[in-house]
Amino acid sequence: MIRIIIADDHPLVRFGMTKIVSKDPDIVVVGEAQNSHEVMELVRTRRVDVVVLDISMPGKNGLEILEQLKHEYPKIPVLILSTHSEEQYAVMAFKTGAAGYLTKRSALDELIKAIRKVASGGRYASSAFDEYLLFGLEKGMDKPPHETLTNREFQIMHLIASGKKPKAIAEELCLSVKTINTYRGRLLQKIQVKSNAELTRYALENKLLE
């Protein structure tokens, strides 16, 4: 029996995923979570074989939760499920320790296949992601600047590019405005742009915004 936790901040999404995986007699949902606190509480109190984690979560985002999970429970495989395409977030997710990455546009039976694969100790990526990596290797492409960002830097870049002001970002992330401005300066340097407008253009051109 594969015991899984489904972490997504949308109740209907959690309901739909639970209904899908429950069709498999070998998979059981032992808990649902809508934020980082609930994810960690479930992992600490229940026997869990796989965590299915949405990348867009309130408070700590999915990548930050993934980082915490891999630090505290390195043996529990995490399958990232996201609305974002593979080329946007998959590389960063795997670098952080994800065992698999699947988009919410994938076929329903692929979710069960991915859960089984990571539960058995394997890694799961779609054929689209494999092609993306292969294309990059064949072309000898350099790593894009956003793949060098930390999870927190990536999160702040996304918020800035979405039009949020430093004060609003600071309140959302429970950080000071000074800290946000420090991150902003670091982002401009790493992405090699000079303004928020150019940062937003970069995010749009690389399809980093929903």
What is the count of β-strands?
Answer: 6
CATH topology grouping of the largest domain: Rossmann fold
Alpha carbon gap, first and last residue: 35 Å
Given helix and strand content, the structural type is alpha/beta
**CATH architecture classification name of the largest domain:** 3-Layer(aba) Sandwich
Q: Beta-strand level of the residues, as a percent range? A: 5-15%
Portion of residues in helices?
40-55%
Which sequence of strands runs across the widest sheet? 2-1-3-4-5-6
Distinct helical segment count? 10
Q: Indicate the mean pLDDT.
A: 85
List keywords for this structure.
210 residues, alpha/beta, Rossmann fold, Arc Repressor Mutant, subunit A, 2 domains, 53% helix
What does this structure look like?
By secondary structure, this protein is of the alpha/beta class. It folds into two domains: 2-136, Response regulator (Rossmann fold), CATH 3.40.50; 145-205, Winged helix-like DNA-binding domain superfamily/Winged helix DNA-binding domain (Arc Repressor Mutant, subunit A, Orthogonal Bundle), CATH 1.10.10.10. It has ten helices and six strands, in the order E-H-E-H-E-H-E-H-E-H-E-H-H-H-H-H. Strands 2-1-3-4-5-6 form a six-stranded parallel β-sheet, with helices on both faces. Helix 3 (62-72) links the parallel strand 3 and strand 4 (78-82). Helix 7 crosses helix 9 (177-191) and helix 8 crosses helix 9 (177-191). It is globular and about 55 Å long. The termini are far apart. The relative contact order is 0.11.
